[in-house]
Amino acid sequence: MKRLRSARLALIPVVAIAVAVAAQGATARSSAGGTLVIDRSFEIKTADPQRAFEPTASIVNRAVFDTLLTYKGADVAHPVPQLAESYTASKDAKTFTFKLKKNVHFADGTPLTSADVVFSFNRLINLKGNPSFLLADVSVAAKGKYGVVLKSKVPNTALPAILANTSLGIVNSKLVKAHGGTDAADADKTDKAEQWFNSGNSVGAGSGPYVLKQYSTTSQLVLQPNAKYWGPNKAKWSSVVVRNMISATQLINIQRGSHEVAIDLASDQAQGIRKNKKLKVSLTPSTWVFWLFANNNKDISQITPNKHFQNAVRYAIDYRSVVGVAGPGAIQAPGIIPNMFLGSLPQKMRINQNVAKAKSELAASGIGSTKITLEFPSDLTINGVPFASMAQKVQANLQSVGFNVELAGAPVGTWLQKYRDGKMAFGLSLWGPDYPDPADYLAFLPGKLVGTRAGWPAGSDPPLEKLGDQALVTTNAKARQKLYQQIQQKLNADGPFFPLIQPTQVFVATTDLKDAVFNPVYQIDVTQVSAK
Q: Is the sign of the CA dihedral 286, 288, 291, 296 positive or negative?
């Protein structure tokens, strides 16, 4: 499982809003043609960009705070300039120099300069909050009034993708300081600006096309146009309302509404409305990847490090049936990197079930009918896929070729601790990206975060590790794509990991909207959505 930043696992309880209230809200809203409505199950904690790292917060902060780089539509493989006019990277991928646009100003008219970028990034780092890891080992300095230099202690080819995250939204340093904000080393103890960010009084904090009008972590968030927006992509709505709704209520609202979006429907709910001509129902693979692993540490298990055992697992899985657990829109994961990211493998490179080979490898392993326990988090569901259902399907696949598999589910907290400690022999896990860049998946290499948890220390596979070292300092997109595909092919052939599926991401919008698409980083970029 990934680093488990709290929001990305959606483990925070969601506040349910009554259906009757929601329906009343939908009726009242429908008379306002200039309003875009987004229904989302809230997990938001704050609208302070340097503290926020939740999906709901990213919807709001994408509209309020500009970033140096951003994404267009659903494409998260290619960051494009927003506040940055251009940038360059050093050959060792440790130094990135940005040239800022000179015509940018905040919503109160204050010009944006390099001082605001330095303040915003240092505040992110020194708040020591949930998203602070994004700039770990990175220092920031101004280079004149419109230049910014980021220096990383280690090669950081993912930095352009990271800079498109809304947690790196640029704030009005003078105004934030006037309301208790600071970028000092002790900001985690002395910064007092969060309450101001979480209110309609924070107009002027950002330079985006919208400003925050109303804030609530339990009911709704409201945006209104920034009357002084600097750029050509001005606000297209008189208001944007993001409402806290459970999926059942979202299903009701999206069928009644206009200029409306629903983000949290399950695959089976989406099937019931696909023929509705007033709706555009998208079922696409999500960025989550489910995978199995076999621990390579012989102190943990005498069975799972056996390469014949691992190959038997690899070829025993009926991947089509496993994908079926997740329903329409899900796909087999050909590698560990999701299909929408740079460096992902095409479907033609996926592993296919080979029962004869699986049985041959199982016989060669010599384990016979020895029982092997598959562990999984029994109380966790991701994108409508319960881990328990996935584990049962994997168990059936393995047993059909001769494995003796016992399932052992545990609460996610208990499971997670054992997994993180590297004491799990055979497990079902998943990974969701901290940022949409293939460098995030180097964690699966020997000696790295996930590799270590799977008993795969540095030095276990020198050729693979050499490819990883090369990928760390390669900045050319085509060269990076080739390297990451080579890394995944080698992982698929020799690694202790077995990619299974990318589950379904459901996104529904009324057909009276233009450019309403799901974005894995922002959920939806409301600055790009307009009425037809």
A: positive
State the Cα–Cα distance between residues 157 and 184, nearest whole angstrom: 27
Comparing CA positions, the residue from 77, 54, 53 lying closest to residue 161 is 77
When computed from its CA atoms, the radius of gyration of the chain, rounded to whole angstroms, is 24
Other beta carbons within 10 angstroms of residue 311's beta carbon come to 20
The helix (run of H) or strand (run of E) holding residue 255 is helix 247-256
Distance CA 350, CA 265 (A): 28
pLDDT in tens, 128-167: 999 999 999 999 999 999 999 999 999 999 999 999 999 9
Count CB neighbours of 167 within 10 A: 27
CA 137 vs. chain centroid, Å, equals 21
Neighbours of 19 (CB within 10 A): 15
**C-alpha to C-alpha distances, 236 to 168, 242, 254, 258, 532, nearest whole angstrom:** 24, 15, 20, 15, 11
233 CB neighbour count, 10 Å cutoff: 12
Place of tokens 């699966």: 444
The pTM (predicted TM-score) of the whole model is 0.87
CA distance 116 to 334: 42
**Torsions phi, psi for 133 (to 5 deg):** -60, -20
| Residue recorded with tokens 């920034």 | 226
Quick count: other Cβ atoms within 10 Å of Cβ 351? 18
DSSP letters for 163-220: TTSGGG----HHHHHHTT---STTHHHH---HHHHTSGGGTTS--SSEEEEE--SSSE
Distance CA 7, CA 13 (A): 11
Q: Are 502 and 487 in contact (CB under 8 A)?
A: no
SS3 of 452, please?
helix
Contact 279, 510 (CB under 8 A): yes
pLDDT in tens, 462-489: 999 999 999 999 999 999 999 999 999 9
The CA dihedral of 493, 494, 498, 503, to the nearest 10 degrees, is -60
Half-sphere exposure of 471 (CA within 13 A, CB side): 26
CA distance 394 to 400: 10
Task: Give strand pairing partners of 345.
Answer: none
Instruction: Give the integer Cα–Cα distance in Å for 519 and 500.
Output: 22
170, pLDDT greater than 50: yes
